[in-house]
């Protein structure tokens, strides 16, 4: 069960491997030739409890026994990387804590976590990289709760369906010293947010959902990015508030691609804001159905705004597409099909340095089909009328 002061001669990085035994596991060194590495510390691996003090990386596989309880995983201060493959079945919840600032932690589950009254996976990381790979999860609270307060990247991959009865299905947070935040999922069902992803670090944020996302009380996807690019790729998304609500205050671009229906029961279907340090804002989607605005965008960055909707937009109490380019933004381009809105079909404000272009291939219904306030002249409080130099509208007739 323990390793204390063992020296192994190896050709590459040395690992401590935990091999199965009936009720717990013993850690052994993996030996080759001929450079040395010294293990110092203990690794405990029992059903329901793993604790690591080894200063070199450790790979651990649990038994495949039914646990019928919780699993605790602790990587203690000064320990090396900890890679855990969880083979237990009937796990109520997994609680993991990485206290080693120099180490990464990786947890992979091979069985579903679907016991009644279970509580998902919770990971707090003070080290470098945080990696999760899971199967199906049903949870009373967060199915995934991951907070990375270390210095590395966070990667979450869900190979099945996850749901939360009372909270966000996925809650993922990168603190300021971290880098990338990457989430890859299938079907998601959350009581609050389907996915809550907040990256305060220096890297990019990427959310990819291959299945359907549903949020009962809040947003299907909520994403905040402070570092570089913000990228969201989805299929069907339904939120009680917004389907997708995203803010990018990083130095890169925002790209939203939705190959399905984006629905908002009480607010905007897609609500996106680019802050002052960002670049492009690009949205490509199929169908939009919103209580308020179908798509609402503000680009305060230095790049273009491009919105393409290949099918229909419904905005029951608002505007089909609202797009605003502020002073430093570039071109504003909208390509839309059918729009049915209570207020405006399309409302644009282009105070940026580029031109505005709107192309529609369907019917636009609303109190105003297209609304564009007069544009301010440079260094003036006056407005000038729109001209083809900066605004162009084209309607494609159907044959």
Distance between the termini: 76 Å
**What is the typical, i.e. mean, pLDDT?**
87
Shape: elongated
Largest sheet: 39 strands, mixed
Based on helices, strands and strand pairing, what is the structural class? mainly beta
Helix content class: under 10%
Number of strands: 43
**Number of alpha- plus pi-helical segments:** 0
Poorly predicted ranges (pLDDT <50, ≥5 residues)? Answer: 1-16, 19-26, 28-38, 375-392
Assess the beta-strand content as a share of residues: over 45%
Rg is: 25 Å
Provide a descriptive summary of the structure in words.
The structure is a single chain. This protein is mainly beta. It is built from no helices and 43 strands. It has a 39-stranded mixed beta sheet that branches. The chain has a two-stranded antiparallel sheet with strand order 1-4. Residues 1-16, 19-26, 28-38 and 375-392 have low confidence and may be disordered.
Secondary structure: elements and pairs:
Layout: E1 6-10, E2 16-20, E3 24-29, E4 35-39, E5 43-46, E6 49-52, E7 58-61, E8 66-75, E9 82-86, E10 89-98, E11 105-109, E12 120-125, E13 130-134, E14 137-139, E15 144-148, E16 154-158, E17 162-164, E18 170-174, E19 181-185, E20 188-190, E21 195-199, E22 205-209, E23 213-215, E24 221-225, E25 230-234, E26 237-239, E27 244-248, E28 254-264, E29 270-274, E30 281-290, E31 295-299, E32 305-309, E33 313-315, E34 321-325, E35 332-336, E36 339-341, E37 344-350, E38 356-360, E39 364-365, E40 368-371, E41 375-376, E42 383-384, E43 391-395
Parallel strand pairs: 2-7, 6-8, 7-9, 8-10, 9-11, 10-12, 11-13, 12-15, 13-16, 14-17, 15-18, 16-19, 17-20, 18-21, 19-22, 20-23, 21-24, 22-25, 23-26, 24-27, 25-28, 26-28, 27-29, 28-30, 29-31, 30-32, 30-33, 31-34, 32-35, 33-36, 34-37, 35-38, 36-39, 37-40, 38-43
Antiparallel strand pairs: 1-4, 2-3, 3-5, 5-6, 41-42
